[in-house]
Automatic annotation (TrEMBL):
Gene Ontology BP annotations: pyridoxine biosynthetic process
EC number, UniProt record: 1.4.3.5
Entry protein name: Pyridoxine/pyridoxamine 5'-phosphate oxidase
Cofactor(s) annotated in UniProt: FMN
Enzyme kind, highest EC tier: oxidoreductase
Binding sites annotated in the UniProt record for FMN: R63, I64, V65, L66, L67, K68, Y78, T79, K85, Q107, Q142, S143, W187, R197
Pyridoxamine 5'-phosphate oxidase N-terminal domain ranges (all copies): 44-158
Subunit note: Homodimer.
Top-level lineage group: Bacteria
Length: 215
């Protein structure tokens, strides 16, 4: 089977990224872009990001996760620590995050090192989740083989009965990761594929250094 996509074309004309107008701290630029996308495209999940890890089999693997917080330290998401991604991070904490905001014709790529957030931080976020999501996290042995969808649903229903009227406690295998960035690249689509790219790299001695890259 063959499907030729060579005729797919899109012109990028919505904005520009001028390095002289960018802040010294890339987190400030990320905040500006994120808020702009979040306000301008409410139907999109602005916090949806691709997380890339190196699996135990040596292959890279990408999946969509949801950003739940960003600070001057980095970017936080939550997951099952025993999942494929959790095991991959335990083996190699160097990861990549990427955001593609189609409506704004923008992309952000982040290289960083993952570390677990504190148990208290994970508790606070877990307790803020809808009860159904809490029970789902307790029911799912994420990434592991299951007998059937019916078996998973039965496990959820069993937990609902067991904890009816009772508070739920975060499982110790579930929690957050903080991705501390070492490099962040901002991409703005431009006409004729001459896109704007500004890359920041972190140096322990001098802080963030930024450069413009060829498209």
């Amino acid at each position: 089977m063959k499907k030729d996509l060579g005729h797919y074309r899109k012109a990028y004309t919505k904005s520009e990224l001028i390095i002289e107008n960018t802040p010294d701290d890339p987190i400030e630029l990320f905040k500006e872009w994120f808020n702009d996308v979040d306000a301008s495209f409410p139907d999109q999940e602005a916090n949806a990001m691709t997380l890339s890890t190196i699996g135990l089999d040596g292959y890279p693997k990408n999946r969509i996760v949801l950003l739940k917080m960003f600070t001057s330290e980095g970017f936080v998401f939550y997951t099952n620590y025993d999942s494929d991604k959790g095991q991959a991070i335990a083996n190699n904490p160097k990861v990549s995050l990427s955001f593609f905001w189609e409506g704004a014709e923008r992309q952000v790529i982040i290289k960083g090192v993952a570390e677990k957030v504190s148990e208290s931080e994970s508790d606070i976020y877990f307790n803020s989740r809808p009860r159904g999501s809490q029970l789902g996290a307790m029911a799912s042995n994420q990434s592991h083989k299951i007998e059937s969808r019916e078996a998973l649903q039965n496990k959820l229903e069993s937990l609902e009965k067991e904890y009816e009227g009772k508070p739920l406690k975060r499982p110790n295998y579930w929690g957050g990761y903080l991705i501390k960035p070492v490099a962040i690249e901002f991409w703005q689509g431009r006409p004729n594929r001459l896109h704007d790219r500004v890359a920041y790299e972190y140096n322990e001695n001098t802080g963030w250094i930024k450069n413009q890259l060829a498209p």
